[in-house]
Amino acid sequence: MPRSGASPASGGPSWLRPDWPVPESVRAVFTMRGGGVSSGPFASLNVGTQVEDDALAVAENRRRIGVSFDLPAEPAWLSQVHGSRVVRLGSAVTAGAAADGVVTSEAGRVCAIQVADCLPVLFAARDGSVVGAAHAGWRGLAAGVVENTVAALGVPAAQLLAWIGPGIGQAHFEVGPEVRDALIGSAAAGSAAAAFIVNARGRWQCDLVALVRLRLASLGLTAIHGGRWCTFADAENFFSHRRDGRSGRMAALIWLT
What values do phi and psi take at 98, rounded to 5? Predict the structure, then answer.
């Protein structure tokens, strides 16, 4: 499979390193499926605590991630609700907050998004002053999580870079007319209809990556990277809730040094 400038860490967690021209002070990684201790449908590097996996296994998986990537702190794991709320990491305790976007301008605080088909979108200012992440499934997109995260970063969109991580590809993401209508009706600009292809059942194949790109471009953010990996199509490397029903979660992490 193609990787974004990285290969799995030998004997440890498997991962993608975003290939984007950010300053040295910006660090980011996406954890894949391999290198953990979970078993069954959660095998092996599951980071999710809400998927009925063994709590001790999840804790060990998270510990391995912290050690392997030399994280400066425990990631601020959110309670993701497929909404549009964005929190800022600072002096207040925000780990566990009900939100689907997170930003920080403080070094040593780790933004985290969990996914298993929804798109993780990472953001960084070109000058390294602020970073963030958004959990962009179809509900979050329709609610405006991408737009809200860009606004929370507090930097002109033209001065931002974005990286779209692994998510379900168009060939495997069938949706009904109500989902299509919600996403087309909430599009900020351009024609979101082009991101949908009707299938033989009269339903629609949805291109989430195209929709995210459209929304970012409508805000003036054109430095968009990634978006090449399908979680559903690659069971060896990625968890997929739609493919498996019960599955683990992967993590997109970004922080400032």
Answer: -75, 100
